[in-house]
């Protein structure tokens, strides 16, 4: 009498293939989530930089640091050298400790856009 069905080895190989595929899919999803988080941070940084650049040009912000609420999120900033003729440098941070930089932007103080 001939038995039909799969052998234990065939079942184990099939399960191993499914497991490898599941790991691959989870890694792709994780990478996409990381990319989305980075894109969101960059978008927030761009919004904050535009706001602070406009303030520096119109109001003449002085060298210092602070925080800005933009789009329901907070960004922390430090402005250095803004009082000089050459302008200054705006650095944005993701945290209050100013340890995770989101980027640097040049500032031309007192120059109308």
Describe the structure.
This protein is of the alpha+beta class and about 110 residues long. The mean pLDDT is about 85. The chain is built from 1 helix and 4 strands; from the N terminus they run H-E-E-E-E. The protein has a single domain (about 10-105), classed as Pantoate--beta-alanine Ligase, Chain: A,domain 2, CATH 3.30.1300. It is a single-pass membrane protein. Belongs to the GSP I family.
Radius of gyration: 26 Å
- Share in helix: 40-55%
The CATH topology is given as Pantoate--beta-alanine Ligase, Chain: A,domain 2
| Global morphology | rod-shaped
CATH architectural grouping: 2-Layer Sandwich
Uncertain stretches: none
Beta content: 15-25%
Q: What pattern of helices and strands is seen along the backbone?
A: HEEEE
Q: Which sheet architecture does the biggest sheet show?
A: 4 strands, antiparallel
Order of strands in the sheet with most strands: 1-2-3-4
State the secondary-structure class: alpha+beta
Return the average pLDDT rounded to an integer. 85
- Counted beta strands: 4
- The span between the termini is 89 Å
The CATH class is identified as Alpha Beta
What is the number of helical segments per DSSP (H or I, 4+ residues)? 1
């Amino acid at each position: 009498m001939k038995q039909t069905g799969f052998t234990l080895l065939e079942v184990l190989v099939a399960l191993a293939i499914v497991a490898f595929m599941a790991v691959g899919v989870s890694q792709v999803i994780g990478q996409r989530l990381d990319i989305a988080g980075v894109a969101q941070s960059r978008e927030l940084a761009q919004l904050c930089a535009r706001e602070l650049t406009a303030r520096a040009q119109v109001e003449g912000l002085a060298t210092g640091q602070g925080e800005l609420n933009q789009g329901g999120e907070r960004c922390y900033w430090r402005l250095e050298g803004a009082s000089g003729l050459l302008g200054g440098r705006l650095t944005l941070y993701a945290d209050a400790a100013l340890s995770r930089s989101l980027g640097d932007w040049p500032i031309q103080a007192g120059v109308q856009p």
